[in-house]
Specification:
Elements (H helix, E strand, L loop, with lengths): L2 H5 L14 E2 L11 H10 L12 H11 L6 E4 L1 H13 L5 E3 L7 H8 L3 E3 L11 H6 L3 E5 L11 H10 L2 E5 L13 H4 L3 E6 L12 E4 L2 H10 L7 H12 L1 H24 L11 E5 L2 H9 L2 E2 L1 E4 L7 E6 L3 H16 L2
Parallel strand pairs: 1-10, 3-4, 3-5, 5-6, 6-7
Antiparallel strand pairs: 2-8, 7-8, 9-12, 11-12
Helix pairs in contact: 2-10, 3-10, 4-5, 4-9, 11-13
The protein binds pyridoxal-5'-phosphate.
Length: 341
């Protein structure tokens, strides 16, 4: 086996307890799919004896209309996770400099290591990036997550532009784009080296279907499409993703509820005395000890406990915004854990 595989940490997806639990650990959308999406799923079952069209024209057309970009600028994959891996495959040679500002999403490290790249992990407190580091290092690939997981903030557009000017390629992971008004999609018209990464797992609530996409200039898209698994996205996943775009109004309504709840939980956490990060996503990050995480588990709420993440000193909990009653329960447990501390 390759030596590097032995030192790569497995992806930490948190805990998945059995039974009736409230899942607030993976930043999923807590609501059911629209009726149209359920119907599209069922109808697609008629076709599962056939392979999907591996160039996914209908899915690309739907994404193209959703975002007003040309289909030739869209690559699709089995979740945006697959496209992170493929981006490394097509862009990064051994010992190329890959800059991944920290703290951020851990999956980037796995693929950067697999390519034997020269890893640069600059730490920016609260993920408040500045461009000097990138201007000095001139990385082959820089990976920016905006809004960032786990800090929840967006990166200033001017800074991203400077990073784009200093890097050969820049991958901008916008898995949470629909939860902010400050997305960076139009940078693809300004820069030839920008790749925007998006997901159906968060805003569109299709985490279990595994659909993601990248938007970039045609040559990069062709390269990504060439190396991804043929038939990477199953037929029911394609059908539900297209249908979710057609049910956009339904998902916009859900987003309004989620954002309203996020602001409520944010101010309640502050009132309770927690140090909580402002967020433009569907989750909140706050300082809390392991005992609090355990108390949640005892009460059948699963959140993510973060300790020892590069660039995030101390112990934290990252909690996805759930339905109102789920968030109420989360707050009640926090209140009682303070009272009993
Ligand atoms: C920042 C970020 N990028 C990518 C992903 C992966 O998403 P997908 O389900 O599209 O593979 C996640 C999932 O949590 C994420 O937080």
């Amino acid at each position: 086996m390759r030596g590097v595989v032995k030192i790569i940490n497995p992806y930490d997806a948190g805990v998945f307890p059995e039974g009736d639990v409230i899942l607030l650990s993976s930043n999923e959308n807590p609501y059911e799919p629209s009726e149209e999406v359920k119907k599209a799923y069922l109808e697609s079952l008629q076709k599962i004896n056939r392979y999907p069209d591996t160039s996914y024209p209908a899915l690309k057309k739907a994404i193209s209309e959703y975002l007003n970009v040309e289909t030739e600028n869209i690559a699709v994959g089995c979740g945006s996770s697959e496209l992170i891996s493929r981006a490394f495959d097509v862009l990064v040679e051994e010992l190329d400099k890959v800059a991944i500002p920290m703290p951020s999403y851990s999956l980037y490290l796995t693929y950067a290591m697999l390519r034997n790249s020269s890893l640069l992990l600059p730490i920016f407190k609260n993920y408040a990036l500045s461009s000097d580091f990138f201007e000095d290092e001139k990385p082959k690939l820089s990976i920016i997550c905006s809004p960032n997981n786990p800090t929840g903030n967006v990166v200033d557009r001017k800074i991203v532009e400077r990073i784009a000017e200093s890097s050969e390629y820049i991958l901008i992971d916008e898995a949470y784009a629909e939860f902010t008004k400050k997305n960076l999609l139009d940078l693809i018209h300004e820069f030839e080296n920008v790749i925007i990464l998006r997901s159906f797992s968060k805003f569109f609530g299709l985490a279990g279907m595994r659909v993601g996409y990248a938007i970039a200039r045609k040559e990069i898209v062709e390269a990504l499409e060439k190396v991804r698994l043929p038939f990477a996205i199953p037929t029911p996943s394609v059908a539900t993703a297209i249908s979710a775009i057609r049910s956009l109004d339904y998902y916009i309504q859900l987003r309004e509820k989620i954002i309203e709840e996020r602001e409520r939980v944010f101010s309640e956490l502050k009132k309770l005395g927690f140090e909580v990060y402002p967020s433009e996503t569907n989750f909140l990050l706050f300082k809390a000890k392991k005992a609090v995480f355990e108390k949640f588990l005892e009460n059948k709420i699963v959140v993510r406990y973060l300790n020892g993440l590069i660039g995030l000193e101390g112990e934290f909990i990252r909690a996805t915004i759930g339905k109102k009653e789920e968030n109420d329960k989360l707050l009640r447990i926090l209140e009682s854990s303070i009272a009993s501390a």
